[in-house]
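In the laboratory, one determines a bound structure by crystallizing the protein with its ligand and collecting diffraction data. In a computational setting the workflow is compressed into a single prediction: the sequence and the ligand go in, and a structural description comes out. We illustrate the idea with adenosine-5'-triphosphate.
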Amino acid sequence: MTETPLYEGKAKKVFRTDRADEYLVFFKDDATAFNGVKKGRIESKGELNNAISSAFFEILAQAGIKTHFLRRVDANSMLVKKVDIIPLEVVTRNLAAGSLAQRLGWAEGKALPSPIVEFYYKDDALGDPLINNSHIAALGLVTPRELEWLELQALAINQILRQFLLARDVKLVDFKLEFGRVGNEIILADEISPDTCRFWDAQTNQKLDKDRFRQDLGQVSEAYQELYQRLLNPAAYKARVEVRLKPSVLDPQGEAILRSLKSLGHVEFSSIRVGKLIELTLTGDSEAQVKEKMAKLADELLANPNMENYAITVEPKQ
Ligand SMILES: Nc1ncnc2c1ncn2[C@@H]1O[C@H](COP(=O)(O)OP(=O)(O)OP(=O)(O)O)[C@@H](O)[C@H]1O
Ligand SMILES: [Mg+2]
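The predicted complex, in structure-token form:
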């Protein structure tokens, strides 16, 4: 690792490593808002954002999302795959807040009928303006197909993070992602932290993110710490395993019910399959981890893989 960073941004320093394809990212305590106009420091922010980002990247990787994250190296740093950052900020919103609330005159916290994905041109000198697909095409930042993929990827990430957070009593209001190219792939890069997301307590709507700094609400470091604590908590999930006989397997129980139905005059029924529903409550790290565990249990114990098919659904237990 070299001493001088390759790049020093507002929140992080990026260092070269011994490997040409890896960078070390160091998270700073410095905080800025309103495109650098408001400056300050948030106690322990670097460590907390490094830990929080690492946790989110791990959750996403478990759910099959490709990210630049390799591993956390020490309190303030993580090792990542070097990418060519695409100068687009991909913002996904579930509730109105910040610039969206302002632009459309919507009350902060208004629920959106479905998530909104927005693109901003990553250019500090221009103040990161909101742009649409025509601007993106004119700027030649990504192809229309890539843009479509980025939007779908943002929505998929939204689903994963939203579920994960809801299980820990946190609402994901909105968040900003950056993607980068490596070879002919596009992967998720940068950070996912209270600097780049809005997190609200699900019960009280208390803010657990950088809005506390932007709006001088106090207890900024404490809020980042609280969010991190919640991520560490295993959460409660409800898992449903539906087990059904394979179509090729005879179903004597079903046949018996069908015969009874017919003998009672219900001639409209022509086929039947009897199965079982197993509902379980358990704690786990994430929806993906619980799903994987339940599939293993279904194979080994809950179903007979020779004769039965199963379907698993997992959701946060409310
Ligand atoms: N895997 C990666 N490879 C290369 N660059 C990365 C990677 N992940 C993040 N970056 C870039 O490293 C920089 C991190 O610094 P920081 O977040 O402090 O920047 P910033 O002040 O927000 O400024 P800006 O993001 O506008 O450059 C960002 O420019 C980010 O796009
Ligand atoms: Mg940044």
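Residues 144-166 form the longest helix (23 residues). Keep in mind that any predicted model is a hypothesis to be tested, not a measurement.
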